[in-house]
Amino acid sequence: MPNESYLADLELVVPNLHRRYTGVTATNRMVAPRLAKLFRARWLGSNAPDGIARLRLVDLLRLWRRQHPLIWHARRNSEMIWGVVLRALGWPLKLVFTSAAQRHHSWITRWLIEQMDAIIATSDHSAGYLKRAATVIPHGVDTDIYAPAADRAAAFAESGLPGRYAIGCFGRVRAQKGSDVFVDAMCALLPHYGDFTAVLVGAVVPEQMAFASELRRKIESAGLAARIVMTGELAIEEVQRWYQRLTIYAFTSRNEGFGLTLIEAMAAGSALVAARAGAAELVVEDGVTGVLVPSGDVDALVAALEPLMCDPQAATAMGARARERVLGEFSLVAEAKRIAAVYRTLI
Prior knowledge:
This protein is of the alpha/beta class.
């Protein structure tokens, strides 16, 4: 039961006003507990992570017209709207918005952005679509949770799937994520590389059932139903375990805000072949910590994956370099410290 003195000292509210678990929710859940170590913070909404206290609606009401400013860090339009409304009604909010989108914003989003006290962009590319100054802070990843398995071969063996090596593509099964590009590439490659099994990890939402059914038809027509596996939605702990089973990760998005799976896979020590979408060009050193290919290009994906499938040891070495890059540039600790610096300019 929260006490009034704690609420009086509160400095940060982290709203998550969307019930469905999304990439935005995932990034929010990871960094919020780190921010809670730096500020007196509470989480408002669904999917609260461990490491940060909850704020109930009744607690939010108690903060009306208090003296000291309070950071409200939005990551969606709905959260910006609530922040603007609450401030207009007397809550002493300083409004921050993180933008990952790499597209032109709608008029309502542009208007909301203008009401913010500070803007964070997850990449220079995202910042380029904003009509005002932004602080560029890339997403980070928890390198303790997303870490290589002690024994990758044993981790893969526990899956019960055929072969010795796994190649994966994670995210909701849909065209925007390039799930079809991945399946087409696997249909071309797997008949020649019997030691590999491919896995698509991610939910199929109702509106994408027809798309997913067409992918399954392609897989069955290729005779690869046992070697191209669609897991459906998994608990986050099982997703993390799947990263540890991969030798190669394929990031196939056609467009993306940031693409957190890039750094999750790299942190887990997977070799990376990435479409030039989201933050891929920021994160990947082409030919060193991964290989960059054009978005939506099946032939280019096949050409980039095949040398790594031919030489799993080379893939393992690339994965080790990828993890070192994440440790140096894209850790969760670094992200939280950079966000904290933005907050301090406001409070």
